[in-house]
Amino acid sequence: MRKSGRAFGGFAVFTLWAVLVLLAGASQGAEKLTGIDQLKDQKLAAQRGTIGHFLAEDLLGEDSKALLTTYEKYVDAIAALRQGKVRAVIMDEAPAQRFLRSVENLALMHESLSEESYAIGFRKGNTELRERVDEALAAMKADGTLAAIIDKYNGDFSVKPEDIDLNKGARGGKLIMGTEAGFAPYELKVGSGYIGIDIEMAAGIAKRLDKELVIENMNFDALPMAVSSGKVDMICAGITVTEDRKKNMDFSANYVEGARQVAVVRADDYEAPAGK
């Protein structure tokens, strides 16, 4: 039996070696990525319902159904990239940078696909709440509160959910915010609580409205329906303002400008332009 086992083990080792040789050959044979145009006929990934999803569809054109895979969470799209299932992930730059800090062998392609603005979404016609939120946002911009929140999370932050004042028991009732807590540094679930730029900004708005902030975490593509149905009062999840989205919801003033959409690739599959 031991002889048989050794023979089987030898076959297994040979098979593994052959697979590795084939994979190495395939990797060596593939031309390294140097520019966004090379992605037009490659397998791509994106988070479902995001601007990255729509940009990837535009990039791939009529081949998008065959070449684009969408995921509910960014982390799953990055996992697909690391496993070689896709050649790039199209996503927002800030969360992409967070992945680069914690995951080996990732890189951002130098070119961006677009630049966007983030705002808070409301049910169409909910003018009273939108105007009150805009007043609070304007005050937070004027006194430097919003800039301080963004600066804090753009570095290596150490924030606990209990550090954020949700204004519990406020006399003005509750302000229910829908979000998708897989978009660091904007929203991130830690234990049973939440941290991030959007969370602290919304907490500051709620306090100025004398309301308690309540957070409802859900998939990103479920957020528009949640706010239009009244399940939540507003949605805040790094949401880009687009003309299509304006047809179905109203937006606050922008709280982030110039947010880049980028392609995340494997570092060993990318050759950056000289000097970049």
Describe the structure concisely for a colleague.
With 276 residues, this protein is α/β, with parallel strands linked by helices. The protein contains ten helices and 13 strands.
Structural topology:
Elements: H1 2-29, E1 44-47, H2 51-60, H3 64-67, E2 68-71, H4 74-82, E3 88-92, H5 93-102, E4 106-108, E5 114-123, H6 127-142, H7 145-154, E6 174-179, E7 182-183, E8 187-190, E9 193-195, H8 197-208, E10 212-217, H9 223-228, E11 234-240, H10 243-246, E12 249-251, E13 256-266
Parallel strand pairs: 1-2, 1-3, 6-10, 6-11
Antiparallel strand pairs: 3-13, 4-13, 5-11, 5-12, 5-13, 7-8, 8-9
Helix pairs in contact: 6-8
Would you mind describing this structure in some detail?
It is built from ten helices and 13 strands. By secondary structure, it is of the alpha/beta class. α6 (127-142) crosses α8. The longest helix is centred in the first third of the chain and has 28 residues, at 2-29. The chain is globular and about 60 Å long. Mean pLDDT is 89; it is low at 1-28.
* Shape, principal axes of CA atoms: globular
Distance between the termini: 59 Å
**Helix content bin:** 25-40%
C-alpha-based Rg, rounded:
22 Å
Order of helices and strands: HEHHEHEHEEHHEEEEHEHEHEE
Summing up helix and strand content along with how strands pair, one would put the structural category as alpha/beta
Query: What's the total helix number?
Result: 10
pLDDT below 50 for ≥5 consecutive residues: which ranges?
1-28
Q: What profile does the largest beta sheet have?
A: 10 strands, mixed
Average pLDDT taken over every residue: 89
Number of strands: 13
* Amount of beta strand: 15-25%
